[in-house]
Specification:
Elements lengths: L42 E4 L5 E6 L5 H9 L3 H8 L8 H8 L6 E7 L5 E9 L5 E8 L8 H15 L4 E6 L4 H9 L3 E4 L6 E6 L5
Parallel strand pairs: 5-6
Antiparallel strand pairs: 1-2, 2-3, 3-4, 4-5, 6-8, 7-8
Helix pairs in contact: 1-3
Length: 208
Amino acid sequence: MKIEEKSTNSDIEPSPEGSSPDLYSYAPFSGSVETSKSIRFPQQIVTDEGIEISIRPVRPDDVALLKSLFESLSPESIYFRFFAPIKDFPDHMLESFARINEDCEIALTALDRSGKMLGICCIAIMEDGIRGEFAVLIGDPWHGKGIGAELLKHCLSLAKDRRVEVVWGRVLPGNTKMLALGRKLGFTLKQVPDDNEYELLIDLRKKN
């Protein structure tokens, strides 16, 4: 899923003609997430598939955990998330993932009982304050275990707290697991005109 933040970092291989690489290089929201009126962190969760996880905001000291998470990703998972092949995730890039901008982003991570980072989910809130774009990234060993669903549900709850009305994300056709997750959580699905992508969209005003 793309977040509208582009980069010319040399660690990224050229994108297919007509597309632009996306590095998830914006700073995730974390500050007042801790005192959300609907959720207190950390959240201890058992997913529908029986996996015990702890959900909390992304923090600036998560760089080492992020590095391990990204090392667990297959080339396909990287491409599905960033819409471009990425050869390496250097420290300066990981540090940018973990930086906090509490004005316009929400970012949560899921950890297992040992403290290993299993995945992250973020929503970048647009300047109008009522629209946001989401992205989910789960390490390959933990695909299909309900972790992405829990992270996205919690991020959507936090976005609703902040009076965000509509949240969307772009998904490649081959990312069937993400498309299925969107349908499961109540997103509508439509193909983007003149583009080989789908858009998942949810209206939080209609979400209980």
